[in-house]
Specification:
heterotrimer; B: six-stranded mixed beta sheet; 10 helices; about 35% helix; globular; C: about 270 residues; mainly alpha
């Protein structure tokens, strides 16, 4: 299973005063099972990019191949693509509409043509995986708290059992606890079910902690596409386009400049701590025993 | 007396069924005491549902206390005749930039407040110009708000409040829906107003990075003020903050972890420079 | 796409039309609409066309931008034109099974299409060159006498201006919700009418919820800024006629007289 984008261009409001080239010659390959972060400031084209991946927006030029098939072919079934590439929009709780949470989550599976029982089973499974208490399943989604609503909305997409899960700024507007809940949920989906995850965010620190590959978008183009530590090596260029590398990256670079032999590739607090303890206390790095957050060593 | 003073302030959201019987009571504010001096930059922290927004709405007389009292610039908010003067004294900026801009042109929106309080036309123009300038949005005065970025919209909203010449501005999670650039813009504008115009600022947020430069911080949870102090005092208690569903900036967290591992690093590190200095001192 | 509807979207530019008092523009639009439905003869049509394009040119709003507003009502226009084409009685020139096209029908269809196009373009000029707030100010002031008989003119004007401000936002939101539901497999296109209506539920419910939420937020934001109804309010941009406005009145009257004269003396050939 793979998605390949070949020279994708997208132009908004072509031929008017408001013409904007949202995407410019984007070439990407999304391989099976990856956990990818897409970063860029507002208007960099990242939201437009992900809407191409399930065919909601059609490129002005260029081709997208899903498992080798051109998705813009006449006989390509876009609905089938949308079944397999799940997209969670920004503020997804704004799309809830059913009278009960359970019905809302069943909406996707029902549209896939599943029977009522099967759809219900999917909904049940999805709601359980997002950790919503069972006594809430038959209540109105509108009575939930903000973080809960968002989890229900994500369950609505998970219930369709997508192979690729794309989330557009899933933590926007949430408090730290809500943010961690959502990100941990996504990381668990990736790990347990092997779903390919594409996480759109403007928080470098969130992304650094979870993903294995970062795509940086700027002015509709792919600026960097690499592992987090490789990307954050360009922290000065990132800053120029209004994106900051994680605070620890700056710290490590500053320490290095002052002559301390620390690991400048550290992007998470855990990595930084490891490296600092090693340098300052002469302690052996201990990759396995760390009970801190998951690490992404280069 | 301070510009905002709350004494044993209580607010209960009461839900009633169709017959008017009480279905449930939710205590959003539970005996809050607050004393804010004029010219201060105050931050109120708390996770969603901690009661911080409810508190904000009291300061602008949008909600009335269930029990206890609240004075804004010496005026009791529970008195009907004080409502408009209180709203004039304490302006408010809300979370969603789209849902608080009334007019379709930036300058007309900034003029909305002064129009409401009966400011003469010539003076409205003066105030609009000055407030737009103070948030750095003067060049956008003829623009439609729909074409602005989130941070710009919030600055317009702040200008709209400034044009009413308030003594105090309450910002209720003004950055929650913004990207990092927008967040910086809004915070910068708030600090500018505080320093240059001496406006008292009450910033309500759940982003810890935003309170580092505040004069004083209140942390709320379940309707109580659970912590208060200078940012340094607050950030030195990483564990307690986490218990209240809050985060600490990466640098503070790292400093805390290093200290726990036995390194000699002071409590409550706030900035990168401080941590660099502390580490270099250890390294010799 | 949905966001192409330009109605209620102010286009900032520095033109004479932009500077006119909204009352003049409202009145002129009204007169122009009346003229569209009472003109007769090719001369009047030319006059209406010339007037419209002169105003468009003066307004400095790109023509392309205006035409976009037309696309949205294309369907309505086609239906009206077809009705006129087939249902006007008279001498048939073409007969297709039970459908017959008469010369009068053909003429009516063309005229109707022109009228509707001009009507949309004419009103678009007003909405594109006047901020919704100015527009409602104009309406408010023109209709103020009605408040004496108990009509809440200020409240209505305020409601209108807010509605106008939120139309583009809600249109964008509709677009977004539609896409979000399509990502969950919703289908807004196929099926019969009942099916289609039923399929709109996942779009309409979230849209209403969002509209109510926004209304709630906005009401609070307005209150926080001391909004207290129309009483004791001053105006940032009070309406005052200047020389330019008087000239504009003269021009629109002159135009209307030309149309009426054409109607009386040159009603040929329609």
């Amino acid at each position: 299973m793979s998605l390949i984008l070949d020279k994708i261009n997208y132009v908004y409001s072509e031929g008017t005063a408001y013409q904007i080239q949202a995407l410019k010659d984007v070439n990407l390959e999304i391989r099976d099972g990856q956990f990818i972060g897409v970063i860029g400031h507002t208007g960099s084209g990242k939201s437009t990019l992900i809407q191409h991946l399930n065919g909601l927006v059609k490129a002005t030029s260029g081709t997208i191949y899903f498992n080798g098939q051109d998705i813009y072919d006449e006989d390509f079934d876009l609905r089938e693509l949308r079944n397999r590439v799940g997209l969670v929009f920004q503020y997804p709780e704004h799309q809830l509409f059913e009278t009960t949470i359970f019905d809302d989550v069943s909406f996707g599976p029902k549209n896939q043509g599943l029977s009522k029982e099967e759809a219900g089973l999917r909904a049940f499974e999805a709601l359980r995986s997002v950790g919503l208490p069972e006594e809430l399943y038959y209540q109105s989604p509108f009575d939930l708290s903000g973080g809960q609503k968002r989890r229900v909305a994500i369950a609505g997409v998970l219930a369709m059992k997508p192979e690729v899960l794309i989330l557009d700024e899933p933590t926007a507007g949430l408090d730290p606890a809500g943010r961690d809940e959502i990100l941990d949920l996504v990381a668990r989906m990736h790990k347990e079910k092997g779903i390919t995850v594409i996480l759109v965010s403007h928080s470098m620190e969130d992304v650094a902690k979870y993903v294995e590959r970062i795509i940086v978008m700027n002015h509709g183009q792919v600026m960097f596409d690499n592992t987090p530590c490789e990307v954050f090596k360009h922290y000065k260029e990132l800053e120029q386009i209004g994106l900051a590398a994680p605070q620890v990256t700056y710290l490590m670079h500053e320490l290095k400049e002052k002559g301390l032999n620390v690991n400048t590739e550290a992007t998470t607090v855990a990595e930084a701590r490891e490296s600092l303890l090693e340098v300052l206390l002469g302690r052996e790095p201990n990759h396995r025993g760390s009970n801190l957050e998951e690490e992404n060593l280069c | 007396m301070g510009i905002i003073k709350a004494k044993q302030l209580v607010h209960e959201y009461i839900r009633r069924d169709e017959e008017g019987n009480v279905e449930s009571i939710q205590t959003a504010l539970d005996h809050i005491d607050l004393d804010v001096q004029p010219g201060q930059f105050i931050a109120i922290l708390g996770h969603n549902g901690s009661g911080k927004s409810t508190l904000a709405k009291h300061i602008n007389a949008l909600l009335a206390p269930t029990e206890g009292s609240l004075w804004v610039d010496g005026k009791d908010v529970t008195q009907e005749e004080n409502i408009l003067p209180v709203r004039k004294t304490a302006g408010m900026v809300f979370q969603n930039p789209d849902n608080q801009i009334i007019a379709s042109v930036v300058e007309e929106d900034v003029g909305f407040g002064p129009e409401n309080i009966g400011v003469p036309t010539d003076e409205i123009w003066q105030r609009v110009e000055e407030s737009l300038k103070s948030v750095g949005m003067l060049q956008y005065r003829h623009h439609s708000p729909n074409k602005l970025s989130g941070g710009q919209k919030q600055r317009v909203a702040i200008a709209g409040v400034m044009a009413m010449e308030p003594k105090c501005i309450v910002l209720d999670e003004p950055t929650a829906m913004l990207d990092p650039n927008g967040r910086k813009e809004v915070l910068h504008a708030a600090h500018e107003l505080n320093q240059k115009k001496g406006v008292t600022i009450l910033l309500i947020t759940h982003y810890m990075e935003e309170v580092v430069d505040a004069d004083y911080v209140y942390v709320m949870d379940k309707g109580h003020v659970v912590m208060q102090g200078t940012p340094r005092e607050i950030f030195s208690q990483v564990g307690t903050l986490k218990e209240h569903g809050l985060d600490v900036p990466q640098i503070t967290l790292l400093a805390d972890l290093l200290r726990q591992s036995g390194l000699d690093i002071p409590l409550g590190v706030l900035t990168r420079e401080e941590l660099v200095d502390a580490i270099m001192k250890i390294a010799g | 796409m949905l966001r192409d509807i330009t109605l209620g979207q102010y286009y900032p530019a520095d033109s004479v039309i932009h500077k006119l008092d909204p009352r003049v523009k409202l009145f002129a639009t009204l007169i122009y609409i009346i003229s569209l439905f009472c003109f007769k003869g090719i001369a009047a049509l030319l006059a209406a066309t010339a007037f419209l394009f002169a105003v468009i040119k003066t307004s400095k709003v790109p023509f392309k931008f205006m035409v976009k507003g037309l696309k949205a009502i294309m369907v309505l226009m086609l239906i009206t034109a077809l009705f006129n084409l087939f249902l006007t009685p008279g001498e048939p020139i073409v007969q297709l099974w039970i459908f017959k096209i008469t010369a009068e029908g053909a003429q009516n269809a063309v005229l109707m299409a022109i009228r509707l196009t001009y009507l949309i373009l004419g009103t678009s000029i007003m909405t594109l060159t006047t901020t919704p707030n100015q527009l409602t100010d104009g309406l408010e002031k023109s209709l103020m006498p009605l408040s004496k008989i108990g009509i809440p003119v200020h409240a209505i004007a305020m409601m209108m201006s807010i509605a106008l401000r939120f139309i583009p936002i809600l249109i964008e939101e509709t677009d977004k919700i539609m896409k979000a539901q399509m990502a969950r497999g919703a289908d807004f296109e196929s099926g019969n009418l009942i099916h289609k209506v039923k399929n709109m539920v996942p779009l309409l419910v979230p849209l209403f919820v969002s509209a109510f939420r926004r209304a709630d937020d906005l009401a609070m934001a307005m209150e926080a800024r001391c909004y207290n109804g129309g009483e004791g309010r001053t105006k940032m941009k009070p309406l005052k006629y200047v020389a330019l406005d008087h000239k504009a009145y003269a021009i629109i009257f002159a135009y209307f007289i030309v149309i009426l004269l054409c109607r009386t003396f040159l009603p040929w050939p329609m």
